[in-house]
Amino acid sequence: MIEGFLMLGGVLVFLLLIFIWKSVKENKRKWKIRNGDNYTREYLELDENGVWRRISFTCESYKKNFPRHVIYIRKNWENYPEWTNKRKEEILSRLKSVLKEPEYTYIEIH
């Protein structure tokens, strides 16, 4: 019985350490990618005040077909928030470094 509690405690400590490591990593690089709902992926970035700001990209998920996911990028980048202006290549490069091909395909839409 005690061994079971010790094992459970060890697993919980391990999961806590993973969470802390991931948070420190994201805060150090000052950006992250996360799932929104089933139809969005979000790019988040720390601003100069330490507040996470975000933009969302529409995403279609497939179950059996490849590519498995499609990320839709608006061709007119000015439709995204002002802080993203002139940063399209940087943001897309970061997005693609996490949501990699061939699992994700990127399509520009009007």
Task: Note down, in words, how this protein is organized.
- With 110 residues, the chain is of the alpha+beta class.
- It has one domain.
- Strands 1-2-3-4-5 form a five-stranded mixed beta sheet.
- The longest helix has 28 residues.
- It is extended.
- It starts with a helix and ends with a strand.
What can be said about this structure in brief?
The chain is α+β, with helices and mostly antiparallel strands and 110 residues long. Helices cover 35% and strands 31% of the residues.
Helix-residue proportion: 25-40%
Q: Strand fraction band?
A: 25-35%
Question: How many beta strands in the DSSP annotation?
Answer: 5
Return the average pLDDT rounded to an integer. Answer: 84
Number of contiguous helices:
2
Structural class: alpha+beta
Any descriptors?
single chain, 110 residues, 2 helices
